[in-house]
Amino acid sequence: MKIATAAYPLDWLDSWAQYEDKIASWVSTAATQGADLLVFPEYGAMELSTLSGKEVAMDLQASIHATSERMEAAAELHLKLAAEYRVHILGASAPIEAEYALPVNRAEFYSPTGQRGHQDKQIMTVFERNPWHIGSGGPLKIFDTALGKIGVLICYDSEFPLLGRALAEVDVILVPSCTEALSGYWRVRIGAMARALEGQCVTVMSSIVGPADWSEAVDMNTGTGGIFAPPDLGFPATGVLSEGEMQNPGWTYAEVDLNSIVQVRKAGAVRNRSHWPEQEREAKTPTIHPMR
Fold first, then answer.
1. Are strands 240-243 and 104-110 parallel, antiparallel or unpaired?
2. If the chain, 292 residues long, is cut into consecutive pieces of 10 residues, what is the mean pLDDT of each piece?
3. Helix axes 16-32, 60-85, angle to 10 degrees
4. What's the rounded Cα separation, in Å, for the pair 77 and 156?
5. Residue ranges per domain, the chain?
6. Is this structure's pTM higher than 0.85?
7. What does DSSP assign to residue 220?
8. 36, 42 Cβ separation under 8 angstroms
9. Which CATH number fits domain 2-282: 3.10.450.350, 3.40.50.300, 3.60.110.10, 3.40.50.1110?
10. Residue 220's Cα: distance from chain center in Å?
11. Do β-strands 116-120 and 94-96 pair in parallel, antiparallel, or remain unpaired?
């Protein structure tokens, strides 16, 4: 399959039609390049809050509510585009006021056959806990698709090995991200690359890029798109299948052969995925050995 991952700028929107045109243009561009799977970033849907005006967009809690209210309409648009272009789409995540005590950070996944699923973020960052007041939602899921088995670790979730291990059966892990600083981008990228190494799978990182000075929540964003693999049999020695130019909006593409994932798990120089349980035997509480 061919994967397209976004470096996505947030725009001020004056009308719903402007948003429809923007998303349709992005999807059309990737599909025209032959992409089968499109990955938008974490909190990319926050631009929908601008449709409620500047006062709402600039107010943290009001912008969360305004974005959540628009997400069903956004889902209908993404389902339509997925069917029209025959692609799978991970839509930009959004704070969703759902069945939980707090809003959750949710990314919706759409198939060309009209199927729809979602993944909620598991572990909140410091700013999501306070002042955002975003909470953890439903459990991790494995999406069994025509492209293979796909999982999603939203941004900070990619930095936790046990969450990656819970997705050990997937072929591809999608990592939509929103990072303010270059250090944040690299934390998520290092996490994504580590999960590719441990799971002997492909990971796909998308990012928001550039300023959005109308927002208290996502006012500055740093990143680019990247597609990573284990640096082993059948993959680049760097583990980097493709990476975009920092802060340059657009799609980053890579071709991924699922047979390569099968082969590296079976015959790679290292076997991190199958040797993982040995940690449980070896990683006992270490003894203190005086050296002073």
1. unpaired
2. 98 98 98 98 98 96 97 98 98 95 97 98 97 96 98 98 98 98 98 98 98 95 98 98 98 97 98 93 84 92
3. 40
4. 27
5. 2-282
6. yes
7. E
8. no
9. 3.60.110.10
10. 18
11. unpaired
